[in-house]
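User: Here's a structure from my thesis project, written as structure tokens. My advisor, Dr. K., wants to see whether a designed sequence matches the one we expressed. Can you design one independently, without my sequence as a hint?
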């Protein structure tokens, strides 16, 4: 089940308008969902070509990937595009997208576009900050995220 999918490898993209510290696995899941959703639409041919270029990694391999995508689509349609069939199709493509992103993080530009065009949300940044502090034995702890903080301590 894709909801049980655990991230494996973070990819760092340093471009200003991209998510820094993206998790390739989260993006791969979203991309696979967009791909599978597009397989049952009338726009499949043009969408397939874009996914094939993105996944191939090189121009001479694009046609081979397009054929694999068509085979996957046909299997999905033959199975009636059920939830189970979509899940099966997604499993293969999640790993392919993850490898493509790991190989070339700049693919995120096109991938983000494909994901949002299919009405899906891009993964949230995993670049959060968690702070945990504690004091024992009468100690005092000051914890600050951002901004200005003024602390006054009075001796007992």
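Assistant: Designed independently from the structure alone:
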């Amino acid at each position: 089940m894709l909801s049980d999918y655990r991230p494996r490898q973070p990819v760092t993209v340093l471009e200003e308008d991209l998510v820094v510290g993206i998790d390739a696995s989260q993006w791969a899941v979203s991309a696979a969902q967009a791909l599978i959703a597009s397989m049952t639409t009338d726009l499949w041919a043009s969408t397939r070509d874009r996914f094939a270029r993105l996944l191939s990694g090189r121009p001479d391999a694009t046609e081979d990937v397009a054929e694999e995508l068509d085979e996957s689509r046909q299997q999905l349609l033959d199975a009636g595009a059920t939830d189970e069939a979509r899940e099966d199709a997604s499993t293969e493509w999640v790993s392919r997208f993850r490898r493509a992103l790991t190989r070339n993080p700049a693919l995120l530009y096109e991938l983000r576009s494909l994901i949002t065009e299919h009405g899906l949300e891009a993964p949230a940044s995993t670049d959060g900050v968690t702070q945990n502090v504690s004091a024992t034995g009468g100690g005092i702890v000051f914890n600050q995220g951002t901004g200005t903080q003024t602390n006054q301590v009075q001796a007992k």
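When you compare it with your expressed construct, this may help: The helical segments are 24-38, 44-56, 62-78, 83-103, 108-117.
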